[in-house]
């Protein structure tokens, strides 16, 4: 017997899209149950430990009001609780880690604290129930309608069946799609299907982007060398044919040009955090891997507060390409995730013992794993970083031609009558399980069509993240933090809007008047649906 619960809206998955969906639905007066399989909500920002990948204009426009509240909240948390220097405290666009990948590199636990604070009033008021750590295992489906989802507790095995009028899939891999019989795509689509210039001739459903198990490190004097990982020799000899050398090395393909380039690594370079220019339009920032995704720059804090910077390792050499974790047995999935973690341990051991230094020596024995920063005892991130999910077969599929700069030039991408948000990032596909190199395509600032959130057949199932209706190619620019948040927030608002007005999502999308009403609601909620016209008037 499983316990039974019900709510207006069930959100399965508590990553960024799930939290945003919950907030959107709750602000609309609806009751919500949200589940999450890990100990932390926040997904790629927290449990996966990835600083937010954002576009160049993020401080001015191009994100939703609530996403900006999250970003501002992270900065304010540092001002309220951390011993910042006077200069850093006064820095309006405070970047705690002064990482080059993003204007807001911060410790995962701070993002978690702010997300929890955003949800706290709704939990206290009884509108929101959060179930952790639970994952979905079964679905009750009646034709085109999902009636209930059964969740199982990670540790105890307790089962809870949740019924709801709307079900939102905010899982990292689109786990509700096979459970509910929702039609979906995965991996590479064929060029004959999508017409995409970067697509292969034939579909490759098991060829997906690499997963990565990230980790945080710092550097102190002395030796902190870990025990040699069991599979270290395998990974030490591992060399993809397009890599330009061993995977464990400073040489790797440049994502944009595919030229073989050599990165540097200099722990604690004593640079001025306020001079870091985290704008990927001008500089991808990955030349020095220490500062690339740094999440704590010690010079932002009072002397002695941090003995070392803290660096987040999400580098090319931890990309796991040996197999997919989508639509395989639980045993095979666990085997691949274990191997991905072993690769990360091997990269860390190589850094400690064999990595070439600029002074001619090898190894940085002073490096330490900071599992306390990522919330684990094993030293790595709590959850694997998932770049690619199953994807619904949607009413509107977003293809490469819709966003590519080679099609649109120095202009905005395709405009949709049913836009429900905006985003911007290069199409940035990491090496994949099929042996493909990077696919990196210049993108134009894009819109998010409501039709990409609607399965063609299912009536009350909505995606809240990477399972929206992109292709393998366009997933590369729609998978980043602010876009996932936007998609989730709209899914929550849409489900509530339909309940409040006696409509279905498809009825909202198909009818111009209803669509205009919903878009006006989004505008009122602080969701930008068009890129701003910045010309004079």
TrEMBL record:
InterPro entries: FAD/NAD-bd_sf, NadB
Pfam families: FAD_oxidored (PF12831)
GO biological process: NAD+ biosynthetic process
Domain of life (superkingdom): Bacteria
UniProt-recorded Gene Ontology molecular function terms: L-aspartate oxidase activity
PANTHER family assigned to the protein according to its UniProt record, in alphabetical order: L-ASPARTATE OXIDASE, SLL0471 PROTEIN
Name of the protein: FAD-dependent oxidoreductase
Organism encoding this protein: Devosia geojensis
């Amino acid at each position: 017997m499983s316990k039974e619960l019900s709510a207006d809206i069930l959100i399965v998955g508590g990553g960024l899209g799930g939290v945003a969906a919950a907030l959107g639905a709750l602000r609309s007066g609806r009751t919500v149950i949200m589940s999450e399989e890990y100990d932390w909500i926040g997904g790629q920002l927290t449990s996966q430990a990835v600083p937010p990948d954002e576009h160049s204009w993020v401080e001015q426009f191009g994100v939703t009001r609530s996403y900006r509240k999250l970003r501002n909240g992270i900065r304010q948390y540092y001002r309220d609780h951390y011993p910042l220097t006077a200069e850093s405290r006064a820095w309006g666009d405070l970047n705690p880690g002064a990482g080059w990948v993003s204007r807001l590199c911060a410790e995962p636990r701070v993002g978690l604290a702010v997300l929890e604070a955003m949800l706290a009033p709704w939990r206290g008021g009884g509108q929101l129930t959060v179930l952790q750590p639970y994952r979905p295992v079964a679905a009750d489906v009646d034709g085109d309608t999902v009636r209930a989802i059964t969740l199982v507790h990670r540790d105890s095995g307790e089962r809870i069946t949740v019924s709801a009028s709307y079900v939102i899939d905010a899982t990292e891999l689109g786990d509700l799609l096979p459970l509910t019989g929702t039609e979906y795509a995965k991996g590479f689509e064929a060029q004959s299907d999508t017409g995409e210039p970067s697509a292969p001739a034939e579909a490759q459903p098991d060829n997906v982007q690499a997963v990565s198990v990230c980790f945080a490190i710092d550097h102190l004097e002395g030796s902190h060398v870990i025990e040699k990982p069991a599979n270290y020799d395998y990974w030490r000899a591992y060399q993809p044919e397009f890599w330009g050398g061993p995977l464990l090395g400073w040489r790797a393909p440049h994502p944009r040009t595919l030229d073989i380039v050599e990165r540097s690594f200099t722990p604690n370079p004593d640079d001025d955090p306020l001079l870091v220019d985290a704008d990927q339009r001008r500089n991808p920032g990955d030349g020095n891997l220490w500062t690339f995704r740094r999440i704590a720059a010690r010079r932002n804090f009072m002397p002695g507060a941090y003995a070392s910077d803290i660096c987040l390792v999400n580098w090319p050499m931890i990309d796991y390409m040996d197999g997919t974790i989508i639509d395989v047995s639980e045993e095979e999935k666990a085997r691949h995730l274990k191997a991905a973690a072993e690769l990360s341990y091997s990269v860390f051991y190589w850094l400690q013992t064999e990595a070439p230094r600029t002074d001619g020596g090898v190894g940085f024995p002073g490096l330490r794993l900071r599992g306390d920063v990522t919330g684990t005892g094993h030293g790595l991130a709590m959850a694997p970083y998932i770049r690619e999910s199953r994807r619904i077969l949607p009413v509107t599929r977003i293809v490469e031609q819709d966003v590519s700069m080679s099609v649109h030039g120095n202009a905005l991408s395709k405009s949709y009558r049913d836009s429900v948000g905006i985003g911007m990032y290069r199409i940035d596909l990491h090496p994949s399980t099929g042996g493909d190199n990077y696919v990196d395509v210049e993108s134009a600032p894009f819109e998010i069509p409501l039709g990409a959130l609607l399965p063609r057949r299912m009536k009350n199932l909505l995606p809240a993240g990477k399972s929206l209706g992109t292709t393998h190619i366009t997933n590369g620019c729609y998978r980043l933090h602010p876009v996932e948040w936007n998609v989730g927030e709209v899914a929550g608002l849409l489900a509530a809007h339909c309940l409040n007005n006696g409509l279905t999502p498809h009825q909202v999308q198909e009818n111009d008047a209803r669509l205009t009403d919903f878009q006006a609601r989004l505008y009122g909620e602080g969701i930008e649906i068009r890129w701003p016209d910045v010309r004079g008037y």
